[in-house]
Design brief:
Distance between the termini: 44 Å
Structural class: alpha+beta
Family: Belongs to the LysR transcriptional regulatory family.
Largest sheet: 5 strands, mixed
Number of strands: 10
GO molecular function: DNA binding; DNA-binding transcription factor activity
Pfam family, one: LysR_substrate
Strand order of the largest sheet: 4-3-5-10-6
CATH superfamily of the largest domain: Periplasmic binding protein-like II
Region (Disordered): 86-105
Keywords: DNA-binding, Transcription, Transcription regulation
Radius of gyration: 23 Å
């Protein structure tokens, strides 16, 4: 049976993402010649060409694209196995886990989008803490759409995810709530006086471009400012430099200098509690049961 070593996958993923052997070698901490040889040996062993090399640079073949996708998933799974194993045994951080050296209770890491869905999160934490034998919950705030990566690489055991912004592919999940979206504008802007708006209304507001959030570390093209945290966004909106689209629950963190106007044609945001499909944690199962019990009847 053909197998791949973690080292081989790490080398290949670095080259496939950088599309430059020199940068990839620096990234993984080896010299360029042995890195090139390792990739060539991998291609020979698999019997496929993974990379096209010419004077213009390096590009992925169709087979290389597949191995990049599968390799990332495999590396994330290996990293997740290490992190969750350490967490279960007490971990290098010394905070303990089930049967940990300090005798503390099990710990679950819950990834949430920073600043979002505060009321739902607080209700969930309070209700779960009241359960007999409840695990310790560490809340891990994340940037936009980072919950997926945190679940895949083991930084988190469970997450609150929000469609259509997050992908639930590869996870088990339960739907919790559904809500509309709002446009967040400077309070003094003319559109702030409207009762409702459409996506077309805010798509091209002169002098007020929509803020751009990173996705997998990359900002989409556009004229709006690049933002990666809520405080930065809030200040830019208050200064009249940008606008944003958020779920209705974002009203909880708005400043006096902000205005929120419902969007009539924006897709609804559905909040899910999600976890790795292979999880066998009884504490996680209890947390999910608590979350679904709190969900409105229509969603549950």
């Amino acid at each position: 049976m053909e197998t791949l070593e973690t080292r081989e996958l790490r080398y290949f993923v670095a080259v496939a993402e950088e599309l430059h052997f020199g940068r990839a070698a620096e990234r993984v901490g080896v010299a360029q010649p042995p890195l090139s040889r390792a990739i060539q040996q991998l291609e020979r062993r698999l019997g496929v060409t993974l990379l096209e090399r010419d004077r213009r640079g390096v590009s992925l073949t169709a087979a290389g694209e597949v191995l990049l996708h599968e390799g990332r998933a495999a590396l994330d799974a290996a990293t997740a196995a290490v992190r969750r194993t350490r967490r279960a045994a007490g971990g290098a951080d010394g905070r303990g886990g089930p049967g940990g050296p300090d005798g503390s209770r099990e710990r679950l890491v819950l990834a949430v989008k920073a600043g979002a869905f505060h009321e739902l999160l607080q209700r969930l934490l309070d209700a779960y803490a009241a359960e007999p034998g409840a695990a310790e919950i560490e809340v891990l705030p994340s940037g936009t759409c980072e919950q997926e990566a945190m679940l895949r690489d083991g930084r988190a055991d469970v997450a609150l995810m929000h469609k259509p912004f997050n992908s639930l592919a590869g996870f088990d999940s339960e739907e919790l709530t559904t809500e509309g979206q709002i446009a967040i504008l400077p309070a003094g802007h003319p559109l702030a006086a409207r009762e409702t708006l459409t996506l077309a209304d805010i798509a091209g507001i002169p002098g007020l471009p929509l803020a751009r959030w990173p996705r997998n570390g990359v900002f989409p093209p556009g004229p709006g400012p690049e933002v990666d945290d809520q405080t930065q966004l809030a200040q830019l909106i208050a200064l009249g430099r940008t606008a944003a689209v958020f779920p209705e629950t974002a009203r909880a963190w708005l400043w006096a200098e902000h205005a929120a106007v419902p969007l009539t044609d924006a897709p609804p945001v559905v909040t899910h509690i999600a976890w790795p499909a292979h999880s066998r944690s009884l504490a996680l199962a209890a947390l999910v049961r608590t979350a679904t019990r709190l969900a409105p009847p229509a969603a549950a």
